[in-house]
Each structure stands twice: as structure tokens, then as C-alpha cells.
Amino acid sequence: MLTWPGEHARNRPMTATLDDIRETFDLLGDDWDERYRYIIELGKDLPPMDESDKVDANKVRGCSSQVWMVMAVKDGHIQLVADSDAHIVRGLIAVLLSAYQGRTPQEAKDFDIDGLMNELQLSQALSPTRTNGLLSMIQRIQLLSEQAL
Predict the structure, then answer these.
(1) How far is the C-alpha of 77 from the C-alpha of 66, rounded, in Å?
(2) Pair 109, 147: CB distance under 8 Å
(3) Which tens digits make up the pLDDT trace of 17-52?
(4) What's the CATH fold of domain 7-148?
(5) HSE on the CB side for 3, CA within 13 Å?
(6) Model pTM greater than 0.70?
(7) 59 pairs with which residues across the strands?
(8) Phi/psi class of residue 59: alpha, beta or left (left: φ > 0; alpha: ψ in -120 to 50)?
(9) Helix H or strand E segment including 81
(10) Which tens digit of pLDDT belongs to each residue from 108-140?
(11) Among 96, 98, 14, 89, which residue's Cα sits nearest to residue 48?
(12) What is the pLDDT of residue 123?
């Protein structure tokens, strides 16, 4: 059963679009110190998640940090809210939300997330633990999208 994300998150849009992230990554080139700082800044702009949504049922398994994710479908489009206790992971969540937010469940399932991860070079730059966590978050979005169909 899908629950609707917290009231605060519904009223606060993400500030960085996927195109913004792509453009900034392109401008930063291969400077991964700056890219990490940018990812952390993206995480600071995440819409807040209600504490009541930070329950075991909403936890993303496979992440070394704590990550919670809730998805609902409104007017045929998915709305995601997620949070983590780690700054870099919050930034990775922001990247994923910019990629998936507002898509239909079918569009979310069909989205070429591997292509995006390769384009942004995230898989190559993240530690194996962070990569596994990122993949777990992607799998959770895919599962929730499948359930919404």
C-alpha cells in the first residue's frame, strides 16, 4: 500500500532539476572534490521528510546509512520523499529524486538510470559501499513503481 509523503514535502519542490545537475557536473569536470561538495549541497535542499515516515517499513535495505523512502502516485505521477542520516547519501537521494520525481510509474520503470549513473560517473567515483546503497535506492524506486502500476 502506498502512503502519501508528509505534508511538508508536498509543498516544497526540489530546487535542482536533472538538467541543472547534468550541467553542473559538466562544468565541474573531473574535480571530484567539487562534485562531492555539490552533491552534499543538493542534499541540503531535499524537502523535509516527516518523522512519522521514518519507520522500518520505509527503510531502504542494503544501505550502510539509514535511508527512508516513501512514494505515492498523484494524478498518475509519482511523488517521492526520502531522507538519510548521511550528508552524501542525502545528496545522492537528491540526484535520484531529480531523475524520477513527477514521472509516471511506467516512465520510472523505463528510465535509463544506468545511463544517467554512467553519464555522471557516479559508479566509478563512489565507494563500493555507497554504490551498493545507491543501487538499493534505485531498486526500491523500481519496486515501488512496479507496485504502483
Answers:
(1) 26
(2) no
(3) 999 999 999 999 999 999 999 999 999 989 889 999
(4) Sufe protein. Chain: A (3.90.1010)
(5) 15
(6) yes
(7) 68
(8) beta
(9) strand 77-84
(10) 999 999 999 999 998 888 888 999 999 999 999
(11) 14
(12) 81
Identify whether 37 is a catalytic site residue.
no
What are 49-70's pLDDT values in tens digits? 999 999 999 999 988 899 999 9
* Residue that has been written with the C-alpha cell 523505463 in this structure: 110
Residue 50 carries which side chain, given as an amino acid letter? D
Could you tell me whether strands 77-84 and 67-74 are parallel, antiparallel, or unpaired per DSSP bridges? antiparallel
CB 2 within 8 A of CB 147: yes
Do residues 98 and 21 make contact, with C-beta atoms less than 8 angstroms apart?
yes
Catalytic residue, from 63, 86, 95, 138: name it.
63
Q: Which grid cell is 74?
A: 498523484
Q: Distance between CA 118 and CA 127 in Å, rounded? A: 15
The 3-state DSSP class for residue 84 equals: strand
